DNA sequence: GTCACGATATGTCGTCTGACATACGCGCAA
DNA sequence: TTGCGCGTATGTCAGACGACATATCGTGAC
């Protein structure tokens, strides 16, 4: 890990969420610095109370829980703009771990400053709650996917949601986006075995719907994929940025 | 549905969260009234933007999502003290529906007042975020349960968590608590078929661990159940009340 | 009383998914 | 070059879970 500030991609993000000058000044004080980590680096650990919170500026990661016997559940995938450490920030304990999947650049905040945010910037505090509620909503959908959908439906649904997120973030070019995760990560996200996930992916590939190779996801048949996934292929609304 | 105020169980709840006089005055203005509904009454509908939010004063309910083809995923069970409608309150849209399982008494709030809460009562706004983060944490655990645990483990885990919640709320007497849900609700919560849920429950009953009959859950072997569930059988921390 | 309906219970059989084995390609180190 | 580890791919077999059928019990309508 090394703190650095060059080549900062923050400008990109400011396109999405324009700050007022006062807000910018406050957030600047809120911000401790920037952090760049390598791929496969643990950022936050389940059960810990991290003193620092992050906003992802670049790179991707994985949120996951580990059961006592080693089984792993991927709770969500982390993308630029995501806020990391909210649970530690308000509850004093993370419910899951977070690890980078690629090199990541993070905006670092001080946990103790959350209070001042609630006191002096209620609109930003509201955004924080919005993020938490949004995450809760997504987890509810994931629950429905894992609980109710078949393996084929679940994989199609997940790839579609990932691509929708990519589109909302401008990570896509034509019908492709970077997806630097392993099949094992997807399997752990869906509660499927690695082998069955692989075979299910092969089925979607055979049907000419998706192509996921070398860390790049390609959507070849949007409508077909939507039919299998059971949700319309529309883009997502933008999220507030903390 | 009928609004009434007699026989109000609010006193009970105030034991857990003492308000300052100013807070009490504010919350009193925040509160519109009380609502009592029969069992099996829809309270909030997925996708809707309810003008009113609730805190559960008495009774139990179910949060659930419905897929296009009718499949149902129970997201969580609702107990006294739970806040209902947060997603509609901050995002303008519910991600799941909520239906009462028993007769329920609810404290009614105005959705529009959430803003004033953030502006003038940052500590209460913080509690709101705490609740959202807490719910997110629980959903993460549920994901891990549905995704990773076997049917037997999952049922044991759920019954244990339900009993822990009951203990934290003072709903338990000795080793029993009211659990007015159907086996179908549990099945939909775990992504299992009704039949398999029934057989799994029978297995736990045969082992002398639990007894769930006539809306009453009895824990006969706490340590045995904990072993199967894979989590220690300790009580939960109290939650803030909105 | 009796009929219908919902919830729970239990058996049989089929299938979706997991476990295990094996193979291929690639990057990396000796 | 050779060997090793990691991720991906594919086949066979086994098991957990779902689908269907059926039965019991209690409640409510008539």
TrEMBL record, chains A, B:
GO biological process: one example: regulation of DNA-templated transcription
InterPro entries reported in the protein's UniProt record: cNMP-bd_dom, cNMP-bd_dom_sf, HTH_CRP, RmlC-like_jellyroll, WH-like_DNA-bd_sf, WH_DNA-bd_sf
Gene3D superfamilies to which the protein is assigned, alphabetical: Jelly Rolls (2.60.120.10), Winged helix-like DNA-binding domain superfamily/Winged helix DNA-binding domain (1.10.10.10)
MF terms (GO), sorted A to Z: DNA binding
Pfam families: cNMP_binding (PF00027), HTH_Crp_2 (PF13545)
Residues making up the signal peptide according to the UniProt record: none
Span of domain HTH crp-type: 149-223
PROSITE patterns xref list: HTH_CRP_2
Keywords associated with the record: DNA-binding, Transcription, Transcription regulation
Top-rank taxon, per record: Bacteria
The name this protein goes by in its record: Nitrogen fixation regulation protein FixK
Organism from which the protein derives: Jannaschia donghaensis
């Amino acid at each position: 890990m090394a703190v650095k500030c060059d080549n900062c991609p923050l400008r990109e993000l400011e396109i999405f969420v324009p700050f007022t000058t006062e807000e910018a000044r406050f957030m600047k004080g809120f911000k401790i610095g920037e952090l760049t980590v390598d791929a496969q680096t643990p950022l936050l650990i389940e059960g810990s109370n991290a003193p620092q919170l992050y906003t992802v500026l670049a790179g991707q990661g994985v949120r996951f829980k580990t059961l006592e016997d080693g089984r792993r559940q991927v709770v969500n995938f982390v993308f630029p703009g995501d806020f990391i450490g909210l649970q530690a920030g308000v509850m004093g304990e993370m419910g899951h771990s977070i690890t980078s999947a690629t090199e990541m650049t993070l905006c670092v905040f001080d946990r103790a400053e959350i209070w001042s945010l609630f006191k002096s910037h209620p609109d930003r505090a509201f955004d924080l709650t919005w993020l938490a509620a949004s995450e809760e909503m997504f987890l509810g959908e994931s629950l429905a996917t894992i609980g109710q959908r078949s393996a084929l439906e679940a994989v199609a649904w997940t790839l579609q949601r990932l691509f929708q997120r990519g589109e909302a973030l401008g990570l896509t070019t034509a019908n492709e986006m970077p997806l630097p995760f392993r099949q094992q990560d997807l399997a752990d996200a869906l509660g499927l075995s690695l082998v069955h996930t692989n075979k299910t992916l092969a089925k979607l590939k055979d049907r000419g719907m998706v192509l996921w190779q070398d860390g790049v996801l390609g959507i070849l048949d949007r409508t077909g994929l939507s039919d299998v996934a059971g949700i319309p292929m529309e883009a997502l609304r933008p999220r507030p940025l903390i």
